[in-house]
Amino acid sequence: MIAQFKASPGDLWRWIWPSHGDDRNPRQSGAQAPAEMHREFQFGQSGVSYDNLFGPYLVGACRITIRDPFIQEYYQARNMMELLETIVRGRTTTGEIAVHLVTRESPPEFVGKQAHYLGRVEKAAQSQDIRFTWEFDPLFHDRSIETDHGWMIILGRGLDIFQKYELNDGFDFQNRLQICRAVKEFSITVICSTRRTTRDEREA
What we know:
Layout: H1 26-29, E1 37-41, H2 50-58, E2 63-67, H3 74-90, E3 97-103, H4 111-126, E4 130-136, E5 144-147, E6 151-155, H5 173-176, E7 186-192, H6 199-203
Parallel strand pairs: 2-3, 3-4
Antiparallel strand pairs: 1-7, 2-5, 5-6, 6-7
Helix pairs in contact: 2-3, 3-4
């Protein structure tokens, strides 16, 4: 039997906060409380990751909803998996976290592969007390991440912010470190949509 590692609350990367300087060195920029913001990124820029973009706004959330119409292909499902990794690294509480994806269904000839990829994400998430679910909505087009403690992250490109890199090369830093990847041109806007509540209040 192979033992599975489960991150303890708050053990990993508690220093991750948005910085207005070099995203490669968040420790040096000093911790900042998350705040509403708008940021734009240029084509080819590096030093960007889900951790320093989204991480601070996901800490403490019990329920997270991702709306991205294009979680269909392998690399898109991997983006979803990497967002879950950000949630695991930043979690500071015990208890299950519910993550729900709203996306579009693949064309009929690729539906089986899409279901397989999402099923793999669901199975992996269970090992870290994350309940991953999804639904298909053929009409929506807006891209966002919304938490139950008041943050709304509006995504210009959804999770697909990185330029193409070699997924199968285990000796390429871009494969393992998002900050080493070049990004596409995109923007994000973060707003506080409701009064922020504690976990106990949300579970009451």
